[in-house]
Amino acid sequence: MGDILTIVMPVFLVVAAGYAAVWAKLFSDAAVDGLMAFAQKFAIPCLLFAAISTLDLGRDFDLGLMLSYYSGSIICFFAGLFGARLIFGRPWEDSVAIGFCALFANSVLLGLAVGERAYGIDSLGPNYAIIALHAPVCYILGIVTMEIVRAQTGGMALIRTVTRAIFRNALMIGIGLGFAVNLSGIAVPAILDEAVALIMRAALPAALFGLGGVLYRYKPEGDAGVIAMICAISLVLHPTIAWSLGKTMGGLSQEQLRAAVVTAAMAPGVNTYIFADMYGAARRVVASSILIGTGLTVITGSAWILLVG
Q: How does pLDDT run across 46-71, given as a tens digit for each residue?
């Protein structure tokens, strides 16, 4: 277990450094926003572009891998939604936001960083395959369900809402351009490739430090039962489903099983708060769940890495 913690802890120490810097007023809220804007709108899209453009699509896009991960995601969405509604009596809009929080694992900022530390950069092909579908699957499910609950849009208006939310996302632009280069066989000019490489090297350190600064804003207040439910679904149920399906379906390599389980074991991502804020629903619950879940991931993530080897 000590070896596992030496893998996981540096990632969370960078997050903690960002948190401490903002707490000590050494780093302002405006600086955090600027750093996160750089990471999420420029550096991480460059990272995803470079990864997807060179991904072995035939090897890494495995149906069993996708089923083992996304079956768990969808089950967790509805577990969070109906748990919030039926157990805690939350309004339907709050329940959808809570379900989205249980659905959307932090696959990039934490998943990639922990996966690279645990298994090496060459093992991340299946992680990138999961990430390529992550935003479309999660946002389509979350937005469609929220719009149905609100009953404000339908037909083409609903399609436009979903499409706009997905294709204005910088991460999706990076992924889309990566697929375009990969499928077309276009060679990226060496100068451009080196420039992208320079930016992408800053992606994970900047994002992790910025994440710590963002988490400082999320003060855990009240709603302990709902927060505990979200953490249990995100950190226990989702990786359990991914591990169970990955083992029983057969055909998954050890590398693919690790990617599915470790990604599923990550805390809710910052995008869950963006979703909650977009609809003005369950913002305090979601913010607190991100903060507490990220802290718990040090323990639960280590346990899942130990389990999958």
A: 887 887 787 777 777 888 899 999 99
Q: Region 63-85: what's the mean pLDDT?
A: 94
C-alpha–C-alpha distance, residues 188 and 184, integer Å? 11
What percent of the chain has a predicted confidence (pLDDT) above 90? 28
Boundaries of domain holding 280? 2-213+222-308
Cα–Cα distance for residue pair 196/104, rounded to 1 Å: 27
Assign residue 38 the CATH number of its domain.
1.20.1530.20
pLDDT, position 158: 65
The 3-class secondary structure across 224-242, one letter per residue, is: HHHHHHHHHHHHHHHHHHH
Residue 283: exposed, middle, or buried by beta-carbon count in 10 A (0-12, 13-18, 19+)? middle
250: left (phi over 0), alpha (psi -120 to 50) or beta: left
